[in-house]
Here is the input.
Amino acid sequence: MEQTKERRIHRTRRILEIALGIGLAAALVWGTTALHRQQELADRVVRLHILANSDSEEDQALKLRVRDRILDRATEILEQSEDRTEAEAALRTELPELQRLAAEEIAAQGYDYPVTAELTETTFPTREYDDFTLPAGDYLALQVVIGAGEGHNWWCVVFPPLCTASTTNLAQTAMSAGLSGDDVKLITEDGSGYVLKFKSIELWEALKEKFL
Here is the structure.
């Protein structure tokens, strides 16, 4: 009787081990595919990342003023860019001007904070905007750091100019900058399913760091 019980326990454990192995294998396949899809998307966009000096009301208001100044000029700079490569080249050329404009805006508001503007690879969480969502991952970003850069930040997409595009021409704006129809569908699909997929990428990254 005791041996029969032990055999049942052993069999149950074996079934659980097999199920776990199958689940892990499926997760590996899904995770690799999802990360590859995210990277393809990241290779087609440039994010805009503005870091405030602090979380004070004044510093947060200043951040938004600098954002508007940078976003307006960057949109003009990138009007002729047809893909991410051209956008990156144009922004690198104009980084000194963008930093100067940010400094001018800071001074005009009565502050003497230092400011830096650079293009850098930055890790972003999944971010939902009004009309689209971008998955978590590493993206090239035009990053502007005001003062200590310790306050809540603001981020969006400067190329394609999705954060200034209206809902009616969002798809056209994205596709004119090199995004595919599948890319547009991925980031604008209705419902919560795609958000769950994007959140799962964050979970996959965490699991990968822990177990792989």
